[in-house]
Amino acid sequence: MSKLTDTNRMDYNNDIIRRTLILTPLRWELLLIELRKHHSFSVCHVTDKQKEVLGFVRRYHVSKDDKGHWIETIRLDFYDDAKQTFFMLKYSEFLDTSKK
Question: How far apart are CA 4 and CA 28, in angstroms?
Fold first, then answer.
Protein backbone atom coordinates (compact mmCIF):
# COMPACT_ATOMS: atom_id res chain seq x y z
CA MET A 1 0.00 0.00 0.00
CA SER A 2 1.19 3.46 -0.80
CA LYS A 3 -0.87 6.59 -0.61
CA LEU A 4 -0.07 10.26 -1.19
CA THR A 5 -1.88 12.84 0.90
CA ASP A 6 -1.82 16.64 0.77
CA THR A 7 -1.02 18.01 4.18
CA ASN A 8 0.42 21.55 3.99
CA ARG A 9 1.10 21.52 7.71
CA MET A 10 4.05 22.78 9.70
CA ASP A 11 6.64 20.54 11.33
CA TYR A 12 8.52 21.30 14.54
CA ASN A 13 11.05 23.48 12.64
CA ASN A 14 8.25 25.57 11.08
CA ASP A 15 8.95 24.09 7.65
CA ILE A 16 5.89 23.38 5.52
CA ILE A 17 5.28 19.69 4.79
CA ARG A 18 3.82 19.68 1.29
CA ARG A 19 2.73 16.06 0.95
CA THR A 20 2.98 12.82 2.85
CA LEU A 21 3.53 9.45 1.19
CA ILE A 22 2.24 6.55 3.30
CA LEU A 23 3.96 3.17 2.84
CA THR A 24 3.72 -0.25 4.39
CA PRO A 25 6.88 -1.44 6.19
CA LEU A 26 7.50 -3.96 3.37
CA ARG A 27 7.26 -1.26 0.67
CA TRP A 28 9.64 0.91 2.70
CA GLU A 29 12.19 -1.92 2.98
CA LEU A 30 12.07 -2.54 -0.78
CA LEU A 31 12.42 1.18 -1.45
CA LEU A 32 15.29 1.47 1.03
CA ILE A 33 17.19 -1.32 -0.74
CA GLU A 34 16.86 0.62 -3.99
CA LEU A 35 17.81 3.92 -2.34
CA ARG A 36 21.00 2.33 -0.99
CA LYS A 37 22.06 1.50 -4.55
CA HIS A 38 21.99 5.19 -5.51
CA HIS A 39 22.78 7.06 -2.29
CA SER A 40 25.18 6.87 0.63
CA PHE A 41 24.31 5.36 3.99
CA SER A 42 23.90 8.79 5.56
CA VAL A 43 21.37 9.89 2.93
CA CYS A 44 19.30 6.76 3.59
CA HIS A 45 19.42 6.93 7.39
CA VAL A 46 20.14 10.47 8.61
CA THR A 47 17.07 12.70 8.73
CA ASP A 48 18.79 15.95 7.79
CA LYS A 49 20.53 14.33 4.81
CA GLN A 50 17.27 12.74 3.63
CA LYS A 51 15.58 16.12 3.70
CA GLU A 52 18.47 17.87 1.93
CA VAL A 53 19.11 15.28 -0.79
CA LEU A 54 15.79 13.46 -1.28
CA GLY A 55 13.38 16.15 -0.11
CA PHE A 56 11.63 14.11 2.58
CA VAL A 57 11.87 13.03 6.19
CA ARG A 58 10.88 9.50 7.20
CA ARG A 59 8.73 8.85 10.26
CA TYR A 60 7.17 5.75 11.74
CA HIS A 61 3.46 5.89 12.50
CA VAL A 62 1.23 3.47 14.41
CA SER A 63 -2.56 3.72 14.51
CA LYS A 64 -5.62 1.52 14.97
CA ASP A 65 -7.94 0.48 12.17
CA ASP A 66 -11.74 0.23 12.43
CA LYS A 67 -11.49 -3.23 14.00
CA GLY A 68 -9.05 -2.12 16.69
CA HIS A 69 -5.97 -3.73 15.13
CA TRP A 70 -2.68 -1.85 15.26
CA ILE A 71 -1.34 -0.80 11.86
CA GLU A 72 2.26 0.27 11.37
CA THR A 73 3.06 2.57 8.45
CA ILE A 74 6.05 4.54 7.25
CA ARG A 75 5.35 8.15 6.31
CA LEU A 76 7.58 10.16 4.03
CA ASP A 77 6.92 13.87 4.63
CA PHE A 78 7.99 15.81 1.52
CA TYR A 79 9.15 19.41 1.86
CA ASP A 80 10.12 20.15 -1.74
CA ASP A 81 7.64 19.76 -4.61
CA ALA A 82 10.30 19.34 -7.29
CA LYS A 83 12.20 16.67 -5.32
CA GLN A 84 8.93 14.91 -4.53
CA THR A 85 7.97 14.80 -8.21
CA PHE A 86 11.40 13.48 -9.20
CA PHE A 87 11.28 10.89 -6.41
CA MET A 88 7.82 9.68 -7.47
CA LEU A 89 8.94 9.32 -11.09
CA LYS A 90 12.24 7.62 -10.30
CA TYR A 91 10.93 5.15 -7.70
CA SER A 92 7.35 4.67 -8.93
CA GLU A 93 7.80 0.93 -9.45
CA PHE A 94 8.58 0.52 -5.74
CA LEU A 95 5.53 2.55 -4.79
CA ASP A 96 3.11 0.75 -7.13
CA THR A 97 0.48 -1.08 -5.10
CA SER A 98 -0.32 -3.56 -7.89
CA LYS A 99 3.11 -5.25 -7.58
CA LYS A 100 3.68 -7.60 -4.64
Answer: 14
Single-letter code of the amino acid located at 72: E
Nearest to 20 by CA among 11, 7, 33: 7
Letter for the amino acid at 64? Answer: K
Compute φ and ψ for 89, nearest 5 degrees: -70, -45
pTM over 0.70: yes
d(CA 30, CA 99): 12
pLDDT in tens, 48-100: 999 999 999 999 999 998 999 999 999 999 988 889 889 989 998 887 655 44
